[in-house]
Amino acid sequence: MGIQIAYAITTNFPGFVAMVDEVGGVDVNVPRALDDYYSGAVFLPGPQHLTGDQALRLSRDRHDYSNGDISRTGNQALVIISALGTLRAQNPGAVGTAHLVSLLVRHVRMLNVDLTELFRLGRLALSIDPANVRNVTIPVGSGSGTNLLVSPEAQSLFADFRDDAVLQTH
Fold first, then answer.
1. What percent of the chain lies above the pLDDT cut of 70?
2. Residue 144 above 70 pLDDT?
3. Sign of dihedral through CA atoms 141, 143, 145, 147?
4. CB neighbours of 20 closer than 8 A, spacing ≥ 6?
């Protein structure tokens, strides 16, 4: 993409579940009925309050979709954007943000980010209205086996990120 990644935060499945549970769950509007044996994602459509385990199941479901992993990334974004909405509704303020940061650092590995920067990023994130956030999937074409190739149409998306991170055409 030609974009320098300054820092990263990663977690594993138990860490994800614990984080969601420790913030009291997340409110998600499930877009369609799901019934995936492999991930355990069994949901009716509509607004629901999910536990950490349920949020993980929704995030992992790829078998309910004809395009598998592509739709799974959409579900993952739905959970993340919904979590932002849930946390914003709690109106945590500076003290609450510090609590959320302490919760986060117990369940993640961080690369090139310290607590002060994480607090600043948390305050910034909580200032964003989830209604103004769009999830965009990198355009892909077919590849060999289960590997997908980035399609040429992705270049304009990457250019939007490189210049000011505002999506112009996507």
1. 96
2. no
3. negative
4. 26, 50, 51, 52, 55, 56, 83
* Residue 146 in this model has a pLDDT that exceeds 70: no
Q: Which amino acid is at 31?
A: P
139: closest CA among 129, 153, 118, 125?
153
Chain segment 79-130, per-residue pLDDT in tens: 999 999 999 999 999 999 999 999 999 999 999 999 999 999 999 999 999 9
- Looking from the CA of 130 toward its CB, the CA atoms found within 13 Å total 17
Tell me which residue has tokens 């395009």.
Answer: 67
Q: How far is it, in rounded angstroms, from Cα 155 to Cα 138?
A: 9
Beta 8-10 vs 109-111: how paired, if at all? Answer: antiparallel
pLDDT at residue 141 in the model: 77
What SS3 state is found at 109? strand
